[in-house]
Design brief:
Length: 170
């Protein structure tokens, strides 16, 4: 009886330290990196899973694995930085949308137009900074509907990202 009571107390004491599994996507890499090879962006990681298939050719070995895309999360501060320096017009649009920017320091503005399914339709980059500058995003060849324009800015001292809904008419 004493053994059963002791086991019960030990089991009951272990409850506060027991944890369920996490449902967050988490990856622990032993090593990883990225490079540009012949104009193609390549990302690699080591130590994520067992090999599923391996292909090799002229000194390059490629093995399937699990790699999380590296995206910069958009937070409120980075959205406000973009929205305070960018205007989009006309919206709704029939031929093009003008992205007018007025960033204080020189940098790069990347514009990615996607449909509602997330398919990338257009990628444009523009060097901006030091005054008002305009870039046109063509939408004339698109079907009527809603699209997303994702803007990301990277300057010497500031970074930001924001998304805008663009409505195509006619």
């Amino acid at each position: 009886m004493r053994k059963e009571a002791l086991l019960f107390l030990l089991g009951f004491a272990a409850i506060p330290v027991a944890r369920a599994q996490s449902i967050q996507p988490t990856v622990l890499n032993a090593a990883s990196g990225s490079a540009t090879v012949s104009g193609n962006d390549v990302e690699w990681s080591v130590g994520e899973m067992t090999a599923v298939a391996t292909v090799s050719n002229s000194g390059i070995v490629i093995t399937q694995g699990f790699l999380q895309p590296a995206e910069t999360p958009t937070n409120v501060a980075s959205q406000q930085m973009i929205t305070s320096h960018v205007q989009l017009y006309p919206n709704p649009a029939d031929a093009f949308v003008i992205v007018q920017s007025n960033f204080p320091d020189a940098g790069k503005l990347k514009m990615v137009l996607t449909d509602v399914a997330g398919k990338v339709l257009l990628v444009q980059e523009a060097k901006v900074g030091g005054g008002i500058q305009k870039a046109e995003v063509p939408v004339a060849n698109l079907a009527m509907g809603n699209y997303m324009l994702q803007l990301s800015y990277e300057g010497r001292e500031q970074k930001g990202a924001a998304s805008y809904k663009i409505q195509k008419i006619k």
